[in-house]
Amino acid sequence: ETGVTQTPRHLVMGMTNKKSLKCEQHLGHNAMYWYKQSAKKPLELMFVYNFKEQTENNSVPSRFSPECPNSSHLFLHLHTLQPEDSALYLCASSQDQNSNQPQHFGDGTRLSIL
Amino acid sequence: GQNIDQPTEMTATEGAIVQINCTYQTSGFNGLFWYQQHAGEAPTFLSYNVLDGLEEKGRFSSFLSRSKGYSYLLLKELQMKDSASYLCAVKGSFNDYKLSFGAGTTVTVRA
């Protein structure tokens, strides 16, 4: 399925670097999500945008900064990350945040912090 | 808070049946989702239950009992490609749009 595309697929960065993750959806959805997935742990919701407005910041450290320029694109800007931030970062989209339609996920960005 | 429990790992033989249980304790309930996630890939939607009973989709079926806070995903006629992680996710009340996920059950299918 190519409905939700994430780039890059893999990213290795030092703690002092600045990088951005990109997500694009071609499904005409109005809600987009960032999740963190660590081994053997449940998906953790980080941010939600609904019709381009941020509706959720789940106590995420300020070293993670989301941006949603339009309903099709979502970014996660990263700076001065910590080793514990190494994880798979998944983007998802849905019709809107209140819909019972399923969320559609991208393949994720595997992030490693040195 | 939300609490979603599912077994960590299960192993079964090709052609067999496996049942993955999920129990939940949530503030409100507005549906339960099952997703399949192959290693290194996106979670993909399998099923959605909001009313009690069994929903069948080919080799996969999902069951829900709201009074017991319980669901299961049944995989029949297992194939090697069914080796994956299976995620249970619960949506709270209508005004709480967030999904709460379990940690996932890794199913390994052996020849």
Secondary-structure map:
The complex is a heterodimer of chains A (114) and B (111).
Chain A: E1 4-7, E2 10-13, E3 18-25, E4 31-37, E5 44-50, E6 53-57, E7 64-70, E8 73-79, E9 87-94, E10 104-105, E11 109-113
Chain B: E1 3-5, E2 9-13, E3 18-25, E4 32-37, E5 44-49, E6 53-57, E7 60-65, E8 70-75, E9 84-91, E10 99-101, E11 105-110
Parallel strand pairs in B: 2-11
Antiparallel strand pairs in B: 1-3, 3-8, 4-5, 4-9, 6-7, 7-8, 9-10, 9-11
List its salient traits.
heterodimer, A: 114 residues, mainly beta, four-stranded antiparallel beta sheet, globular, B: mainly beta, six-stranded mixed beta sheet
Task: Give structural notes.
The complex is a heterodimer of chains A (114) and B (111). Chain A is mainly beta and 114 residues long. Helices cover 0% and strands 56% of the residues of chain A. Chain A contains no helices and eleven strands. Chain A has strands at residues 4-7, 10-13, 18-25, 31-37, 44-50, 53-57, 64-70, 73-79, 87-94, 104-105, 109-113. In chain A, the strands form two sheets. In chain A, strands 2, 4, 5, 6, 9, 10 and 11 form a seven-stranded mixed β-sheet that branches. Chain A is globular, with a radius of gyration of 13 Å. By secondary structure, chain B is an all-beta fold. Helices cover 0% and strands 56% of the residues of chain B. Chain B has strands spanning 3-5, 9-13, 18-25, 32-37, 44-49, 53-57, 60-65, 70-75, 84-91, 99-101, 105-110. Chain B is globular and about 45 Å long. At the A-B interface, β10 of A face β5, β9 and β10 of B.
For the termini of chain B, the CA-CA separation is: 41 Å
Q: Count interface residues per chain for the largest interface.
A: A-B, 21 and 27 residues
Span of the ends, CA to CA of chain A: 32 Å
Q: How many separate helices of chain A?
A: 0
Q: In percent terms, what proportion of residues of chain A is strand?
A: over 45%
The total of helices of chain B stands at 0
How many beta-strand segments of chain B?
Answer: 11
DSSP strand count of chain A: 11
What global shape of chain A is seen?
A: globular
> Strand content of the residues of chain B, in percent?
over 45%
